[in-house]
Structures are given as C-alpha cells and as structure tokens.
Amino acid sequence: MALPTQEQEHIAAWQSNGLSQAAYCRQHRLNSKTFSNWLRIYRSQQVASAAPTLIPLEIKPETSSSGSLLLRCPQGHTLELPADVSPQWLRQLLKCLD
After folding, report:
1. What domain count does the chain have?
2. Mean of pLDDT values over 16-31
3. Phi, psi (5° rounding) for residue 82?
C-alpha cells in the first residue's frame, strides 16, 4: 500500500519541526492513531525501498589440516565449514547472511 503524498508531507513536516507526534497531531487536527498508522506504512516503505547492504568479504587461501573452510566476518565472527562444501550451497548461505 503506497502512502499518499499528503500523508508523506505531514510526516516530513513532523520530522523537521521537533514536536512530539501528539503535539503535531493536535496542531494540525489529525487523529494521532491515524498518524501513527501513516508513519508505520511510511517506515515500511522506506525499509522496502532501501538498497541491499553488501558485506565485505575477503577470501584468503589458508592451508588447513582439518579439511575445513573458515569464513571470518569483520565483526570477528568465524564460521567453519567442511572444505568440500558445495559452492552453490555456500552462495545461498552468504545470500541469507546478507
């Protein structure tokens, strides 16, 4: 459901003026529950239209006697997988982690 332009303009005006939602609604004679619903729709549209985030990934060959593949994230997380893991499965895993 797309939010009409007038409602989007109210949200932009509210965000820029520093009033609470309740005060803005009183000032503009809007129902505060209706305004909250507009805001929920607006925020869900913003999330849906946001570009996907890419995770930096560096692949370094590393000799391992255990026959495993280690994936290390910049945040410090490590995932150990069998060395013979399917490249297609690994690609699907990385898509899910994005």
Report:
1. 2
2. 94
3. -60, 145
Average pLDDT of the chain is 83
| Residue 91 structural domain | 52-98
Find tokens 């893991």 and name the residue.
85
Instruction: Calculate helix-pair angle for 5-17, 32-49, nearest 10 degrees.
Output: 100
Residues 58 and 34 placed together within one structural domain of the fold: no
Q: Using a cut of 0.85, tell me whether the model's pTM lies above it.
A: no
Count Cα neighbours of 33 within 13 Å in the Cβ-side half-sphere. Answer: 0
Is residue 81 within 8 A of residue 90, CB to CB? The reply is yes
Q: Are residues 59 and 92 in the same domain?
A: yes
Classify each residue of 29-56 as buried b or exposed e, where b means 16 or more C-beta atoms within 10 Å of its C-beta.
ebeeeebeebbebbeeeeeeeeeeeeee
The verdict on 57 and 97 lying in the same domain is: yes
Please tell me whether residues 15 and 31 are part of one structural domain.
Answer: yes
